[in-house]
Every structure is written in C-alpha cells, then in structure tokens.
From TrEMBL, chain A:
It is found in: Cell membrane. InterPro entries: ABC_transp_permease (IPR001851), LivM-like (IPR043428). It is a multi-pass membrane protein. One of its GO terms (molecular function) is branched-chain amino acid transmembrane transporter activity. Keywords: Cell membrane, Membrane, Transmembrane, Transmembrane helix. The chain crosses the membrane at residues 7-27, 33-55, 62-81, 87-107, 114-132, 152-170, 200-225, 237-262, 274-290. This is Branched-chain amino acid ABC transporter permease. PANTHER family: HIGH-AFFINITY BRANCHED-CHAIN AMINO ACID TRANSPORT PROTEIN BRAE, HIGH-AFFINITY BRANCHED-CHAIN AMINO ACID TRANSPORT SYSTEM PERMEASE.
UniProtKB/TrEMBL annotation, chain B:
One of its GO terms (molecular function) is L-phenylalanine transmembrane transporter activity. Signal peptide: none annotated. This is ABC transporter ATP-binding protein. It comes from the Bacteria. It comes from Robertmurraya kyonggiensis. The keyword Acetylation does not apply. InterPro entries: AAA+_ATPase (IPR003593), ABC_AA/LPS_Transport (IPR051120), ABC_transporter-like_ATP-bd (IPR003439), BCA_ABC_TP_C (IPR032823), P-loop_NTPase (IPR027417). Residues 7-255 form the ABC transporter domain.
Length: 316, 267
C-alpha cells in the first residue's frame, strides 16, 4: 500500500515540475534559450533511461544507441514534412520503426557477448547513419528541413511516459528476468528464463524510446543531418548511463541533467567542453567507479520507500 | 525397477574438438531415488550435468525425461520440462535480494504479460502478489526468511548454498541436480546440508542426482551411485557395491576410501 503512495507522490511531483516550468515559459520568465535547454535535457533523459534499460538492467553493452535516435528522427520528420500528418503520430511512428530496427539489429547481435556485442551494435549504429546518408529522399548529407514542433509539453509527456513504462517494466517479473540475465546469464537460463527473448525485448523497448526521443530531437531543430547521429552521439548517451551508475534509473536521469547543463553552457567553447567532460569522467572513475548512484535509486535515500531492488514498485 | 524411469540417458556423449569429455554415458533414474555421481577431478561429472540440462548439446546419444526427448532443448526449456540444478561454483543473482532470487525461479509459473505489467493491469498485481507470497512461503521452509531483503551476495557461504538449492526447487523440478553442494562447507554445515537434502526430498517428493566429493556424504545418503572416470562410466551400484568394486578402488577411491574409514571409525 505504501508503494501506491509512492506512485502518487511521483505523479504529483511530475505535474508540479511540468506546471511550474510551463508557467515560467508562458510568463516569459524563462527565455527561449533556457526553455530550449530544458527540452534538450528532457530528450537526453529519455535517451539515457532507454539505454539504461539495455545496459543497466539487462546488462547488454550496446553502444550504437544513436542509430535508433536517427531512425526516430528521420521517420518522424518524414511523417510531418512529407505527409503533413500530426506530430504525435509522427512521434509514435518514429518509436515503432526504431523498435523494429531494434529487433532487426538485436536478434542477430544479442547472441554476442561483451566486447563483441559492443562492436556489433556500434557497427549497426553506423550502418543506420550511413543508410540515411545515402537516401536522397531525406536529403542525404545535406540533411532534411524540419519544422520546429517540439514543445515543453510534448517533451514532458514523452519523458513521463518513458520513465513510467520503464520503471513499471523493471519492477515486474519481466524486469526481474532482465536483471537475472545481467547478474548471471547461465543461472537465469537454468531457472527457466528465456534469456534471448528478454534481451531482445529490452533492446526493442529501449530502441522504441530512443526513437521517440529522435522525433522530439528532430523537431527541436530546423534541420537534421546524418552527422548528428554519429558514434560520438552514442557515446554521449552511454556516458549518461555509466556516469549515473549502471543499474540506477535515477542515476542516469541525474547524469543526463548534469552533463546536458554542463555541455549547454560550454557550447561556445567546444574544446573546453571536451576537457571538462573528460575531467568529470576521470574524477568519477577515480572516486566513484560504480557511478554517481551505484545501483541505488533516489527513492532508496528515503528510508520509507526502501525496498528490495528489481522486484518492488511504486505501483504495488 | 520395473516401472519406466524418470530420467533415461542412452549412450550420451560430447566431444570438445578432439577431446571426448564424456562418452557412452548410460543412466536410469527412477522417481524418488537419490543417486550419486562421483569420480576424480576432471572425470566429466559437471559435463554430464551440462548435457542433462541442455547447456551442451550431446554429440551422440539420447536423453529423455518421462519419455520426452530432451536433446537439443535450450536450458530454460529443460528447466520447464522439470530438471533444475545448482552449480559447482555458486551462481546466484548477487545484486538481487534473497526474495527476488527465488522470484526469478517462479518466473514461468506466473502468467501476467509485459503489457499488463507496463500498464499495471489487475493481472500484474495478482500475479506479482502470488509470486511474492509463494516465494516467502518457500524461503520460510529454508529458514531464509530473516534475510528476505538482503542481497544474495551478502549472505554467508553456507546460506548462499542453501539459497541456491531453494531457488532450484522453486523452479518446480521433478529431478534436482546438485553439483557438489557441500563443497567448501565445514562438517557442521555439511551435516545440516544432508538433513536439508533428506528433508526437501521428502517434502517435495523429489528425485535427486548429486555430484559430491565428500565420500561420507555420498555413501551416507545415496541409494545408488554412478562412478565416472576419464569421461566413462566404470561402475554403478549401491554404496556397498561401489565401496568394494575393484575398478573403483583402483581408479579413484583408493586414498579417499581409506580416509573416510579413518574419519568414520574412531571419533
Ligand atoms: N566447454 C568445454 N570445452 C572444452 N573442454 C571442456 C569443456 N567443459 C569441460 N571440458 C573438459 O571436460 C573434462 C571434464 O570436466 P568436468 O568439469 O566435467 O569435470 P568434473 O568431473 O566436474 O571435475 P571436478 O571434480 O573438478 O568438478 C575436463 O577435462 C574439462 O577440461
Ligand atoms: Mg565439476
């Protein structure tokens, strides 16, 4: 019962955050630059949390996440720009096609483990990018014009859905199955868990939300180019997850916020940005090799909500 | 032994490259038996378990449970058919709680779908609740209830072994395979383990196949014993027959038989 209370606290908190920001934007207190930064933070959190499901929960070291971001971005842009269909539909389509791409990439590559999986996903990510690079329909290297449709409201709704769905998935027998794969694949298999199935499910679900993020990302600029989705973008997302602490959803959220803020304010000094980024990473590796949050969640810090990991939930 | 055996292995074997790790392995286990599998280091005992559980696909021969062929099934499918196991080197889900370790084993008994979990439909709640209640009930039997929310990795060694057995049983096996359950245990813990094995066997109407180096344990609780040496069965029979089998004594028991006599006689 107390977990039901936790869920409502989460909902109320979300509504308050959304409402306050929206009021600030409407009242002109937040200038467009800050508003845009907030949207960008939201998109990055979605990316971080979706990759967290694959790496942090299921333990599959995938480093080609930007590929699915690209799929979502291009598909949604095609839907709004070429077919003039509504934006929410475009977001959904981007997510679905990205999930299909996730299945296509995941089914062969998730047979691999460790370094091999990392290299395969990296390669697939690049392949996706190069495919878009060579399709004239979406503008090839010069990119594709996109209308600015992404708002704080769209971003926040998507963010809320992403976190809710991934948390609900994680805190169920399905999420537990994924964690058991991460913890010991041989034992999970011996306990009757179809490990391949769960690896693919987690991968496709992660790709789906990366695709949604792609739709928001594309419509937050005026142009998208294949260059936006290179492996450096994949590494940016990977860093959120690792820095936040493998296995901690709130850790990846916090890391995404921190790093987006840092890099936004250092945008005009790209060299300094890379230096500071590296310094932050080196410091974390030295002093908190398990990441900012380790495997814990923010809710663990409040004694009341403390519970076993992986099996509990605010919904129960 | 007129009835059909629960497990039947017919000249199963496996090669790794050129190495024949196990070959011409035959075994019949009947419902309710407690059978031992012994042999010197590297004899191929764990490899046999891996064959039975689908970790390795036999390159020759047949394995069947209750008349159903198991060859070629993935380990998770074999588990669902009714064989579950523990590992020589403990394989728990370390970062998960004791409770969640057991819940994982209940995974395929619950039926709520991914969609129902994501949307928190009623079937999610009832399914999860049932899993939780069953798991707690189960851990009570193994006296692990005080540690429900402890991470598995934080348990002392003996309790980790106990949890691993509990987890294997939660998967609902007809045949339980234990790979050196007493390895690394002190005599007191070994004694408790033997009692535990006898107890669960009774309670769950189980059939057990057990690999063990501790001769006293094997001879003490097993009704029949298979002896493996260099990948081949060299004997099977009752503990007494094995004890006095010249082949076994030569291949393996020599020193240890003497040891176990020395251990059991004075005291
Ligand atoms: N995957 C594998 N690839 C190659 N050789 C293997 C493989 N698995 C086992 N072997 C070999 O098969 C033989 C039997 O090993 P196994 O682990 O079954 O022995 P064991 O009887 O369980 O020994 P122990 O008492 O030490 O546990 C060994 O020579 C081992 O090196
Ligand atoms: Mg062994």
């Amino acid at each position: 019962m107390k977990k039901v209370k936790g869920f409502w606290i989460y909902v109320v908190l979300s509504v308050v955050i959304y409402g306050v920001v929206q009021l600030l934007i409407n009242g002109g207190i937040l200038n467009p630059f800050y508003a845009n930064t907030l949207i960008f933070i939201g998109i990055n959190i979605i990316l971080a949390v979706s990759l967290h499901l694959v790496i942090g929960i299921t333990g599959q070291f995938s480093i080609g996440h930007a590929g699915f971001l690209a799929v979502g971005a291009y598909i949604s842009a095609i839907i709004t720009m070429k077919f003039q269909l509504p934006f929410p539909l475009a977001l959904l389509a981007g997510g679905i096609v990205a999930a299909l791409a996730g299945l296509l990439v995941g089914i062969p590559s998730l047979r691999l483990k460790g370094d091999y999986l990392a290299i395969a996903t990296l390669g697939f990510g690049e392949i996706i990018r190069i495919v878009f690079l060579n399709i004239d329909y979406v503008g090839g290297a010069s990119g594709m014009q996109v209308t600015h449709l992404t708002t704080w409201t769209y971003t926040f709704i998507c963010l809320f859905i992403t976190i809710t769905v991934i948390t609900n998935f994680t805190n169920s027998r399905h999420g537990r199955a994924c964690i058991s794969v991460r913890e010991n694949e041989i034992a999970a298999d011996a306990m009757g868990i179809n490990t391949t199935y769960y690896k693919v499910v987690a991968f496709a679900l992660g790709s789906f939300f990366a695709g949604i993020a792609g739709g928001l990302f594309a419509h937050n600029f005026y142009i998208i180019q294949p260059g936006n989705f290179g492996f450096l973008k994949s590494f940016d997302i990977l860093i959120f997850v690792v820095l936040g602490g493998l296995g901690s959803l709130s850790g990846s959220v916090i890391a995404a916020i921190l790093l987006t803020v840092v890099s936004t304010f250092l945008q005009d000094y790209p060299e300094t940005r890379m230096i500071i980024y590296s310094v932050v990473l080196v410091l974390v590796m030295l002093y908190r090799p398990q990441g900012l949050m380790g495997t814990r969640e923010v809710t663990d810090l409040f004694g009341k909500w403390k519970g076993p990991k992986g099996g509990n939930s605010y919904g129960k | 032994m007129g009835s059909n055996p629960l497990l039947k292995v017919q000249s199963a074997g496996i090669q790794f490259g050129g190495l024949k790790a196990v070959w011409d392995f035959n075994m019949e286990i009947h419902q309710g038996e407690l059978v031992g599998l012994i042999g010197p280091n590297g004899a191929g005992k764990t490899t046999c378990f891996n064959l039975l559980t689908g970790v390795y696909v036999p390159t020759e021969g047949d394995i069947s449970l209750e008349g159903q062929r198991l060859n070629g099934l993935a380990p998770y499918q074999v588990t669902r058919k009714g064989i579950s196991r523990t590992f020589q080197n403990i394989r728990l889900f370390n970062e998960l709680s004791v409770l969640d370790n057991v819940k994982v084993a209940y995974h395929s008994l619950a039926k709520h779908s991914i969609v129902s979990s994501i949307f928190r439909l009623p079937s999610h709640f009832s399914g999860e609740k049932e899993m939780e209640e069953k798991s707690i009930e189960f851990l009570k039997i193994f006296q692990l209830e005080p540690y429900l929310y402890e991470k598995a990795k934080n348990l002392p060694y003996g309790m980790q072994r106990r949890l691993e057995i509990a987890r294997a049983l939660a998967a609902g096996p007809k045949l339980l395979l234990l790979d050196e359950p007493a390895a690394g245990m002190n005599p007191q813990e070994t004694h408790e383990l033997m009692e535990l094995i006898a107890f669960v066997r009774e309670k769950f109407n189980l059939t057990i196949l057990l690999i063990e180096h501790d001769m006293k344990l094997v001879m003490g609780i097993c009704e029949r014993i298979y002896v493996l040496d260099h990948g081949q069965l060299i004997a099977d029979g009752t503990p007494n027959e094995i004890r006095n089998n010249p082949k076994v004594i030569e291949a393996y028991l020599g020193e240890e038989a003497a040891e176990s006599h020395a251990e059991s006689s004075p005291n």
